[in-house]
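Fold in tokens:
===
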Amino acid sequence: MIDLTKELQISNSYYQSQHCNEQWRSFLQVFIQEIYQTAGEQDACAFLRHMGERLAHLYPVALYDRIEDLENSMNTIFAGLNWGWVRIEVHDLSLVFYHGAFPLPSFEKQQVKNEAKLFSALLEGLYSTWMVALGGKPDIVVQTQKAEPGLAFELIYTKP
């Protein structure tokens, strides 16, 4: 389990060194509201998951011998996108991805909850596609365990 105190320190440090331009914040707020209202939660998440898959192809990760090197490679990609950070924990039969400081553009409580659901779906597609590219089985996917605004998203890669 990730240390929440350290998680908050990493996120606060990240937010202080990065920013989200106002024009993107407004665009993302409108995009999320519209996709949620038009498609509904299930279809909106499926769409964002597909976008994550496409992004994984645009930003591939290489195969490494050590999980720390894979994590560093992913963090380099996320830093370039201004998308926060990831920590990976290896368990007996799974990998757990803790993704913090993901840019959620809203401040209103319900809107930011919807954003967390949608962007965690995007991360599911991204991480799942990366795992397949690294030799994982396509029928094993990354699934969100927790996606709460202000905390690191917790996603798990394991057999269902």
